[in-house]
């Protein structure tokens, strides 16, 4: 089982400007959304997980390996990051080479990489576009290419940075299915995300960050019940939760189905 341990983590890009201030976290089984306003420290935290940055103080352990003792390149077969902007990730001149690149770099044979790339492109709905230049495709399709390139590496930990940004309903549903599949395969899935509705519906655990510290950490329903603390972090409850409250519901709804079921019960009691 994949695991991340964060112990007494401090980090700043400059000695007099601390961005992360004594973070302690443990990730093992639950899919987790990390939320908070811009500047809260979310992206910096994820870069520390990936080994792209090293702690000033404290430790980050990826599957018991301390990131201080290993390069980001050697961590590449353990943890994958899907960038917020696919244009920052894509650099090959055709889709298949882009998706095969990661597996080849971490030791897959050409045949293995081709099989993995095939499966990944099928998962993201891009079969048949293998020879197309990624920059001849839409932003949505490039986002799916960047996801496929990480899926093809078959890593135990996958992190998404703002996966729903710029996505329509169809795109969000496909990303949701991909995350659910990764969970079923036993992988640890984390995401930085501003989309409260998607976070509530898809992720089991929510971490709220504010000014480099952890403000809330718990089950999704518990965290989204904390209206005042969410306001302190300049965040709102999911739309479906707020609609439920306006209709008089006391419980926290995480998706439309929960709200509809509650409404049916309310209607039945009035008959």
Automatic annotation (TrEMBL):
<dbReference type="GO" id="GO:0042626">
    <property type="term" value="F:ATPase-coupled transmembrane transporter activity"/>
</dbReference>
<dbReference type="InterPro" id="IPR003593">
    <property type="entry name" value="AAA+_ATPase"/>
</dbReference>
<dbReference type="GO" id="GO:0005524">
    <property type="term" value="F:ATP binding"/>
</dbReference>
<keyword id="KW-1278">Translocase</keyword>
<protein>
    <submittedName>
        <fullName>Cobalt ABC transporter ATP-binding protein</fullName>
    </submittedName>
</protein>
<keyword id="KW-0472">Membrane</keyword>
<dbReference type="InterPro" id="IPR027417">
    <property type="entry name" value="P-loop_NTPase"/>
</dbReference>
<feature type="domain" description="ABC transporter">
    <location>
        <begin position="4"/>
        <end position="236"/>
    </location>
</feature>
<dbReference type="InterPro" id="IPR050095">
    <property type="entry name" value="ECF_ABC_transporter_ATP-bd"/>
</dbReference>
<dbReference type="Pfam" id="PF00005">
    <property type="entry name" value="ABC_tran"/>
</dbReference>
<dbReference type="InterPro" id="IPR015856">
    <property type="entry name" value="ABC_transpr_CbiO/EcfA_su"/>
</dbReference>
<keyword id="KW-0547">Nucleotide-binding</keyword>
<dbReference type="GO" id="GO:0015087">
    <property type="term" value="F:cobalt ion transmembrane transporter activity"/>
</dbReference>
<keyword id="KW-0067">ATP-binding</keyword>
<dbReference type="InterPro" id="IPR003439">
    <property type="entry name" value="ABC_transporter-like_ATP-bd"/>
</dbReference>
<keyword id="KW-1003">Cell membrane</keyword>
<keyword id="KW-0813">Transport</keyword>
<comment type="similarity">
    <text>Belongs to the ABC transporter superfamily.</text>
</comment>
<dbReference type="GO" id="GO:0016887">
    <property type="term" value="F:ATP hydrolysis activity"/>
</dbReference>
<dbReference type="GO" id="GO:0043190">
    <property type="term" value="C:ATP-binding cassette (ABC) transporter complex"/>
</dbReference>
């Amino acid at each position: 089982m994949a695991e991340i341990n964060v112990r007494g983590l401090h980090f700043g890009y400059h000695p007099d400007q601390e961005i992360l201030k004594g973070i302690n976290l443990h990730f093992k089984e639950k899919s987790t959304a990390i939320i908070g306003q811009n500047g809260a420290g979310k992206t910096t935290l994820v870069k520390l997980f990936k080994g792209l940055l090293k702690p000033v103080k404290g430790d980050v352990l990826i599957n018991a390996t301390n990131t201080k003792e290993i390069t980001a390149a050697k961590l590449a077969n353990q943890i994958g990051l899907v960038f917020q902007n696919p244009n920052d990730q894509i650099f090959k001149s055709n889709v298949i080479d882009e998706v095969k690149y990661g597996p080849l770099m971490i030791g897959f044979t050409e045949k293995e990489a081709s099989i993995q790339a095939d499966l990944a492109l099928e998962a993201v709905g891009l079969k048949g576009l293998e020879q197309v230049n990624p920059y001849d495709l839409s932003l949505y399709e490039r986002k799916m290419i960047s996801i496929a390139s990480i899926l093809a590496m078959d890593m135990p930990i996958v992190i998404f940075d703002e996966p729903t940004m710029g996505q329509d309903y169809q795109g969000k549903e496909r990303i949701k299915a991909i995350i659910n599949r990764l969970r079923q395969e036993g992988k640890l899935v984390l995401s930085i995300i501003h989309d409260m509705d998607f976070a509530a519906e898809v992720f089991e655990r929510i971490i709220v960050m504010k000014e480099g510290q952890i403000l809330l950490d718990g089950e999704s329903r518990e965290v989204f019940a904390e209206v005042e603390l969410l306001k302190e972090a300049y965040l709102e409850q999911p739309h479906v939760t707020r609609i439920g409250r306006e209709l008089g519901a006391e419980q926290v709804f995480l998706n439309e189905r929960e709200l509809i079921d509650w409404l049916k019960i309310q209607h039945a009691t009035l008959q």
